[in-house]
Amino acid sequence: MDNEQMESLQRPTILVLGAGAVGLALAGRLARVATVYAACRPVHANAIRDRGLLMEGIWGNGAVEGIIPVTGPDEITTEVDLVIVTAKGTDTRSICEEYARVIRGLPVASLQNGIGNEEIIAEYTGTVIGGTVTTNFSVVAPGHVRVLSESAPMRFGIWSGDGAALDRLIGIVRTAGITVEPDPEIRSGKWAKALLNIAVNPISALLHAPVGVAADADIRKTVIGLVRETYAVAAAEGVRLPWATADDYLEYLFSVQVPDFAAVYPSMYYDLERGRRTEIDLLNGYIARLGERHGIATPYNRCIAGFVRYAERHPRER
Predict the structure, then answer these.
(1) Other Cβ atoms closer than 10 A to 74
(2) CA separation (Å) from 202 to 86, 170, 296?
(3) How does 140-163 read in b/e, with b if 16+ C-beta sit within 10 Å?
(4) In this predicted model, what pLDDT tens digit does every residue of 79-105 receive, in sequence order?
(5) With a threshold of 0.90, does the pTM exceed it?
(6) Are residues 114 and 51 in the same domain?
(7) Both 117 and 151 in a single domain?
């Protein structure tokens, strides 16, 4: 057996589910060390088939060949070793249902925003890995992605099931040249990342204003209420957040995060502007549901979630 055949046998096969900006960029990087199926929209699939995936930015520049774009499970013709879900949280259940035959019994990692995706994925397979990423990804055009900046390592941690799968995933991602670290407290990491989104995203989206609006004196009380409720629910869930108290986090939010992102419009703003579903039920809506389960009042989160759902159903006329 020659070296090329040996390398082919050793290369893992990875399925990236819901490949938009994050998933396509990840597929492009992983293609260096793995056979990669990228489940994506036809507009991306057609472009990638024609001339490869175009990448630009800190993860490399140029066309990446060898990615196998698919638009349905029947197009996957070989056995898959690992699955990484990068779909928007609103699509987690539908894409898991569509690809259930493929992912059943496989290790599946979630690299998605919001809280609750892992619980959905766990209905379809036994080994679930939670993940966080703070890299700046964007779609330039069909089959063309840009990676602008990387503020922290990618992190993965076991949510349920086999720990060996986590070690393998991290090894593959690291070999592909992506900065990655294991996170033994991945639940805490997912909640910590969601805090900013819970506190400011729906307010920004509803007021058609950038994140800096959260610092306004008339808005601050609502932000404080959202965060304190979230901390109460996290404590009931047994989640230990990096900031010891809600007030500690609020100090960080108003002194660091809001100023840093003051001019930014969050993705929820663009979802409402474009008449698309938001991830509100994986953020404030999720906190409200857990609060009800634990007998914790969450009037701020319940109210905000209701406003956003109404805005989804009644798109603003331009």
Answers:
(1) 9
(2) 21, 33, 21
(3) eebbbbbbeebeebbbbbbbebee
(4) 999 999 999 999 999 999 999 999 999
(5) no
(6) yes
(7) yes
